[in-house]
User: Which sequence fits this backbone?
């Protein structure tokens, strides 16, 4: 059979009679399955921005009403700065996302880039958020004369975040990234 | 874009182009549970793509590209974690209501199923009548690469006869 004959068979098919679609169930599934990487990124970003800003405001108001040392303003200001940094990251991320081609390779590149973004975000949360907060917390505890508590809790917080993020990257993100990269290679490969 | 508008477009596409959904489902999934799962995955990706659709390409071309990407990604996921879905837990979205009657078409789907997933997608596009240029634009590879791959696919199909 030649390819033209195959095409005739293909063109004459009518799959529409083979299947019935339950549209109500389909919309329910679309909503349930919609928890994609994109949604995860949006959720994490918005949560970080809102929580940092909210906590920053509360701590600032607390420091303002209670008075005392100027050092008490360091943590609220840090929180508020982190919320603005989160907003900046979100804006640049959304700008970056539109640069990908509307092709299958473009979709793959975008998915790979999104995984890299999530890995980088996890790292930046540790180094720009958990670490400074652990340090700030330590200073407050040391000023209160609780040196051992400061060292213990801060170290635990930092290492738990560090290894937790590393585990998440190895377990979820890197295998998925490798898989997408291998699919990309297969698409681009020229048969010899 | 409002969700209502998105749903209107999706319903319109599903009505007019459901044949594309079904062809890809048949080419990539081979039992009712997998066909249902893949149909949901394709529908989800098509749904999510609607706000990005600017009308530069025909809706059918757009749906084909998005659906093939969904099928390729689904196939790889499925390979690593084979289906263990209990059918009764969720409502099925896709039900087989009739048995295929055209033996030659069945044979053709069998041959397509034997191809590698990436070649399968090009084979479907070729059978749909897309030009090499259009295929290259949809996949994101060069026209010459498409040509080489298609040549191999045709050779492979011929050898199966």
Assistant:
């Amino acid at each position: 059979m030649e390819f033209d004959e195959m095409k005739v068979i293909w063109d004459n098919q009518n799959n529409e009679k083979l299947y019935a679609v339950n549209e109500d169930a389909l919309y329910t599934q679309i909503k349930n399955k919609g928890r994609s990487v994109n949604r995860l990124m949006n959720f994490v970003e918005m949560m970080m921005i809102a929580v940092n800003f909210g906590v920053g405001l509360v701590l600032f108001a607390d420091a303002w009403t209670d008075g005392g040392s100027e050092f008490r303003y360091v943590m609220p200001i840090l929180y508020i700065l982190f919320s603005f940094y989160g907003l900046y990251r979100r804006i640049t991320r959304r700008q970056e996302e539109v640069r990908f081609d509307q092709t299958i390779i473009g979709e793959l590149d975008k998915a790979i880039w999104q995984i890299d973004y999530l890995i980088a975000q996890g790292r930046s949360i540790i180094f720009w958020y958990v670490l400074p907060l652990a340090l700030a917390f330590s200073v407050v505890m040391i000023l209160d004369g609780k040196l051992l508590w400061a060292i213990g809790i801060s170290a635990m917080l930092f290492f738990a975040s560090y290894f937790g993020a590393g585990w998440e990257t190895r377990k979820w993100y890197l295998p998925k990234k490798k898989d997408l990269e291998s699919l990309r290679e297969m698409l681009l490969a020229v048969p010899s | 874009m409002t969700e209502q508008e998105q749903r209107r477009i999706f319903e319109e596409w599903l009505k007019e182009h459901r044949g594309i959904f079904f062809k890809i489902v048949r080419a990539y999934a081979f039992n009712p549970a997998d066909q249902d799962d893949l149909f949901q995955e394709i529908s989800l990706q098509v749904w999510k793509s609607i706000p990005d659709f600017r009308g530069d390409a025909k809706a059918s071309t757009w749906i084909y590209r998005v659906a093939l990407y969904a099928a390729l990604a689904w196939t790889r996921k499925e390979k690593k974690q084979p289906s263990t879905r209990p059918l009764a837990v969720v409502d099925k979205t896709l039900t087989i209501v009739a048995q295929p009657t055209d033996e030659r078409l069945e044979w053709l789907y069998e041959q397509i199923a034997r191809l590698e997933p990436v070649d399968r997608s090009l084979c479907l596009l070729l059978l749909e009548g897309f030009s090499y240029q259009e295929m290259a634009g949809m996949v994101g590879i060069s026209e010459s690469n498409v040509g080489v791959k298609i040549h191999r696919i045709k050779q492979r199909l011929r050898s199966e006869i």
Remarks:
- The beta strands of chain B are 94-96.
